[in-house]
From TrEMBL:
Residue ranges annotated for the Tyrosine-protein kinase G-rich domain, each copy included: 143-195
Region span, Disordered: 229-249
Taxonomic path: Bacteria, Bacillati, Bacillota, Bacilli, Bacillales
Subcellular location field: Cell membrane
Family under the similarity heading: Belongs to the CpsC/CapA family.
Species of origin: Metabacillus litoralis
Entry protein name: Capsular biosynthesis protein
Alphabetical list of InterPro entries matching this protein: Bact_polysacc_biosynth/exp, GNVR, LPS_length_determ_N
One of the record's GO molecular function terms: protein tyrosine kinase activity
Protein backbone atom coordinates (compact mmCIF):
# COMPACT_ATOMS: atom_id res chain seq x y z
CA UNK A 1 0.00 0.00 0.00
CA UNK A 2 1.53 3.26 -1.05
CA UNK A 3 2.02 5.73 1.77
CA UNK A 4 1.21 9.38 1.22
CA UNK A 5 1.89 12.31 3.51
CA UNK A 6 -0.58 15.14 3.47
CA UNK A 7 0.15 18.76 4.19
CA UNK A 8 -2.06 18.51 7.26
CA UNK A 9 0.11 15.72 8.68
CA UNK A 10 3.20 17.84 8.17
CA UNK A 11 1.68 20.72 10.10
CA UNK A 12 0.51 18.37 12.83
CA UNK A 13 4.04 16.99 13.15
CA UNK A 14 5.51 20.49 13.42
CA UNK A 15 2.85 21.46 15.97
CA UNK A 16 3.53 18.34 17.99
CA UNK A 17 7.29 19.00 18.11
CA UNK A 18 7.03 22.79 18.27
CA UNK A 19 8.62 23.00 21.72
CA UNK A 20 11.60 20.93 20.54
CA UNK A 21 12.07 23.15 17.48
CA UNK A 22 11.93 26.32 19.59
CA UNK A 23 14.41 24.96 22.14
CA UNK A 24 16.96 23.89 19.49
CA UNK A 25 16.64 27.23 17.66
CA UNK A 26 17.04 29.21 20.89
CA UNK A 27 20.08 27.20 21.98
CA UNK A 28 21.78 27.63 18.60
CA UNK A 29 21.11 31.38 18.52
CA UNK A 30 22.21 31.93 22.12
CA UNK A 31 25.37 29.88 21.63
CA UNK A 32 26.30 31.85 18.54
CA UNK A 33 25.76 35.14 20.38
CA UNK A 34 27.84 34.07 23.38
CA UNK A 35 30.69 32.85 21.19
CA UNK A 36 30.62 35.97 19.00
CA UNK A 37 30.54 38.45 21.88
CA UNK A 38 32.66 36.75 24.53
CA UNK A 39 34.88 34.10 22.89
CA UNK A 40 36.01 35.30 19.47
CA UNK A 41 38.64 38.04 19.35
CA UNK A 42 37.60 41.18 17.41
CA UNK A 43 39.70 41.79 14.29
CA UNK A 44 40.23 45.32 12.92
CA UNK A 45 41.25 46.30 9.41
CA UNK A 46 43.18 49.24 8.02
CA UNK A 47 44.16 50.07 4.43
CA UNK A 48 46.53 52.30 2.49
CA UNK A 49 46.96 52.98 -1.24
CA UNK A 50 50.09 53.47 -3.30
CA UNK A 51 50.70 54.33 -6.96
CA UNK A 52 53.65 52.74 -8.76
CA UNK A 53 55.03 53.98 -12.10
CA UNK A 54 58.21 53.38 -14.03
CA UNK A 55 60.96 55.96 -13.61
CA UNK A 56 60.73 58.89 -16.02
CA UNK A 57 63.18 61.42 -17.33
CA UNK A 58 62.53 64.88 -18.66
CA UNK A 59 62.12 63.64 -22.23
CA UNK A 60 59.42 61.18 -21.23
CA UNK A 61 57.13 63.54 -19.42
CA UNK A 62 53.99 62.42 -21.22
CA UNK A 63 52.36 59.08 -20.63
CA UNK A 64 51.75 56.75 -23.54
CA UNK A 65 49.54 53.71 -23.90
CA UNK A 66 52.45 51.25 -24.11
CA UNK A 67 53.93 52.47 -20.84
CA UNK A 68 50.62 52.27 -19.02
CA UNK A 69 50.11 48.68 -20.21
CA UNK A 70 53.60 47.80 -19.03
CA UNK A 71 52.88 49.27 -15.61
CA UNK A 72 49.63 47.32 -15.38
CA UNK A 73 51.46 44.08 -16.15
CA UNK A 74 53.98 44.85 -13.41
CA UNK A 75 51.27 45.30 -10.76
CA UNK A 76 51.17 41.57 -10.02
CA UNK A 77 54.93 41.62 -9.52
CA UNK A 78 54.64 44.53 -7.10
CA UNK A 79 51.93 42.67 -5.17
CA UNK A 80 54.26 39.71 -4.67
CA UNK A 81 57.16 41.93 -3.65
CA UNK A 82 55.06 43.75 -1.04
CA UNK A 83 54.29 40.46 0.73
CA UNK A 84 57.82 39.08 0.37
CA UNK A 85 60.25 38.75 3.30
CA UNK A 86 62.38 41.48 1.68
CA UNK A 87 59.69 43.97 2.71
CA UNK A 88 57.97 42.28 5.65
CA UNK A 89 61.19 41.55 7.55
CA UNK A 90 62.03 45.27 7.56
CA UNK A 91 58.47 46.11 8.65
CA UNK A 92 58.77 43.68 11.54
CA UNK A 93 62.03 45.32 12.57
CA UNK A 94 60.61 48.86 12.30
CA UNK A 95 57.42 48.10 14.25
CA UNK A 96 59.08 45.75 16.77
CA UNK A 97 56.60 42.98 15.93
CA UNK A 98 56.99 39.65 17.66
CA UNK A 99 55.80 37.60 14.71
CA UNK A 100 57.45 35.97 11.72
CA UNK A 101 57.28 37.17 8.14
CA UNK A 102 54.99 34.24 7.34
CA UNK A 103 52.56 35.19 10.10
CA UNK A 104 52.56 38.82 8.99
CA UNK A 105 51.98 37.68 5.43
CA UNK A 106 48.74 36.07 6.57
CA UNK A 107 47.54 39.40 7.99
CA UNK A 108 48.27 41.38 4.82
CA UNK A 109 46.16 41.50 1.67
CA UNK A 110 47.45 43.22 -1.46
CA UNK A 111 45.35 43.90 -4.52
CA UNK A 112 44.63 46.42 -7.23
CA UNK A 113 41.56 47.72 -8.97
CA UNK A 114 40.89 46.44 -12.48
CA UNK A 115 42.98 48.27 -15.08
CA UNK A 116 44.45 50.47 -12.39
CA UNK A 117 48.00 51.19 -11.24
CA UNK A 118 46.81 51.83 -7.69
CA UNK A 119 47.78 49.12 -5.19
CA UNK A 120 45.68 48.58 -2.06
CA UNK A 121 47.46 47.31 1.05
CA UNK A 122 45.11 45.99 3.74
CA UNK A 123 46.20 44.78 7.17
CA UNK A 124 44.11 42.96 9.78
CA UNK A 125 45.05 42.90 13.45
CA UNK A 126 43.52 42.58 16.89
CA UNK A 127 44.71 46.11 17.67
CA UNK A 128 43.26 48.79 15.34
CA UNK A 129 46.17 51.16 16.01
CA UNK A 130 48.71 48.48 15.19
CA UNK A 131 46.84 47.56 12.01
CA UNK A 132 47.11 51.15 10.75
CA UNK A 133 50.77 51.40 11.76
CA UNK A 134 51.68 48.17 9.95
CA UNK A 135 49.83 49.23 6.78
CA UNK A 136 51.64 52.57 6.68
CA UNK A 137 54.97 50.93 7.45
CA UNK A 138 54.54 48.45 4.58
CA UNK A 139 53.79 51.28 2.14
CA UNK A 140 56.78 53.31 3.32
CA UNK A 141 59.15 50.35 3.29
CA UNK A 142 58.04 49.34 -0.20
CA UNK A 143 58.64 52.88 -1.43
CA UNK A 144 62.15 52.82 0.04
CA UNK A 145 63.15 49.34 -1.17
CA UNK A 146 61.53 49.03 -4.60
CA UNK A 147 64.11 51.32 -6.19
CA UNK A 148 66.80 48.82 -5.21
CA UNK A 149 64.81 45.71 -6.10
CA UNK A 150 63.38 46.76 -9.48
CA UNK A 151 64.96 50.14 -10.26
CA UNK A 152 61.59 51.88 -9.78
CA UNK A 153 61.76 55.29 -8.15
CA UNK A 154 58.30 56.66 -8.80
CA UNK A 155 56.17 55.37 -5.93
CA UNK A 156 53.53 57.64 -4.44
CA UNK A 157 51.53 57.00 -1.27
CA UNK A 158 48.02 58.13 -2.16
CA UNK A 159 46.24 57.37 1.12
CA UNK A 160 47.66 56.61 4.51
CA UNK A 161 45.93 54.28 6.94
CA UNK A 162 44.25 56.27 9.67
CA UNK A 163 42.69 55.29 12.96
CA UNK A 164 39.12 56.53 13.36
CA UNK A 165 37.58 57.76 16.59
CA UNK A 166 35.48 54.66 17.15
CA UNK A 167 36.93 51.85 15.03
CA UNK A 168 34.64 48.88 14.61
CA UNK A 169 35.89 45.34 14.01
CA UNK A 170 35.26 43.69 10.66
CA UNK A 171 34.80 40.32 12.35
CA UNK A 172 33.18 38.68 14.08
CA UNK A 173 29.76 40.06 13.19
CA UNK A 174 27.54 38.93 16.07
CA UNK A 175 24.24 39.97 14.49
CA UNK A 176 24.98 38.12 11.25
CA UNK A 177 26.28 35.08 13.11
CA UNK A 178 23.14 34.93 15.26
CA UNK A 179 20.86 35.18 12.23
CA UNK A 180 22.75 32.35 10.55
CA UNK A 181 22.59 30.28 13.75
CA UNK A 182 18.85 30.95 14.02
CA UNK A 183 18.24 29.67 10.49
CA UNK A 184 20.50 26.65 10.98
CA UNK A 185 18.92 25.87 14.37
CA UNK A 186 15.43 26.14 12.88
CA UNK A 187 16.34 23.78 10.05
CA UNK A 188 17.96 21.35 12.48
CA UNK A 189 14.91 21.45 14.76
CA UNK A 190 12.50 20.79 11.91
CA UNK A 191 14.68 17.99 10.59
CA UNK A 192 14.92 16.39 14.03
CA UNK A 193 11.15 16.69 14.49
CA UNK A 194 10.47 14.79 11.29
CA UNK A 195 13.17 12.23 12.13
CA UNK A 196 11.61 11.52 15.53
CA UNK A 197 8.20 11.25 13.95
CA UNK A 198 9.55 8.82 11.35
CA UNK A 199 11.22 6.66 14.01
CA UNK A 200 8.08 6.64 16.19
CA UNK A 201 6.34 3.38 15.21
CA UNK A 202 3.78 3.29 18.02
CA UNK A 203 0.10 2.93 17.07
CA UNK A 204 -2.01 5.84 18.23
CA UNK A 205 -5.24 5.69 16.25
CA UNK A 206 -7.26 3.68 13.73
CA UNK A 207 -5.45 5.25 10.81
CA UNK A 208 -2.13 3.89 12.09
CA UNK A 209 -3.62 0.37 12.20
CA UNK A 210 -4.77 0.61 8.61
CA UNK A 211 -1.39 1.92 7.52
CA UNK A 212 0.55 -0.79 9.37
CA UNK A 213 -1.63 -3.84 8.56
CA UNK A 214 -3.27 -2.73 5.34
CA UNK A 215 -6.66 -3.88 6.68
CA UNK A 216 -9.83 -1.85 7.30
CA UNK A 217 -10.87 -1.17 10.89
CA UNK A 218 -14.24 -2.83 11.70
CA UNK A 219 -14.64 -1.51 15.21
CA UNK A 220 -12.94 0.25 18.05
CA UNK A 221 -12.94 -0.26 21.82
CA UNK A 222 -13.11 2.95 23.76
CA UNK A 223 -11.51 3.49 27.13
CA UNK A 224 -14.09 3.49 29.95
CA UNK A 225 -13.37 5.27 33.20
CA UNK A 226 -15.15 3.00 35.68
CA UNK A 227 -14.59 5.26 38.65
CA UNK A 228 -16.08 8.21 36.83
CA UNK A 229 -19.04 6.15 35.62
CA UNK A 230 -19.79 4.92 39.15
CA UNK A 231 -19.73 8.42 40.55
CA UNK A 232 -22.05 9.62 37.81
CA UNK A 233 -24.53 6.77 38.46
CA UNK A 234 -24.46 7.36 42.21
CA UNK A 235 -25.19 11.01 41.72
CA UNK A 236 -28.21 10.18 39.54
CA UNK A 237 -29.69 7.66 42.01
CA UNK A 238 -29.07 9.77 45.10
CA UNK A 239 -30.79 12.89 43.82
CA UNK A 240 -34.42 11.47 43.60
CA UNK A 241 -34.18 9.90 47.10
CA UNK A 242 -33.21 13.23 48.56
CA UNK A 243 -36.27 14.84 47.00
CA UNK A 244 -38.59 12.07 48.23
CA UNK A 245 -37.46 12.33 51.82
CA UNK A 246 -37.99 16.05 51.82
CA UNK A 247 -41.63 15.62 50.60
CA UNK A 248 -42.45 12.94 53.16
CA UNK A 249 -41.18 14.94 56.02
Amino acid sequence: MEETISLKELFLTLKKRLSLIIIITAIATATSGIVSYFVLTPIYQSSTQILVNQSKNDQQAAYNVGEVQTNLQLINTYNVIIKSPAILDKVIEKENLEISAGALNGLVTVGSEQNSQVVNITVQNEDPQKAAAIANSIATTFKEEISTIMNVDNVSILTQAQLGENPSPIKPQPALNMVIALVVGLMAGVGLAFLLEYLDNTIKNEQDIENQLGLPVLGAITTINMEGEMKEQNSKTTLPRTRGESVGS
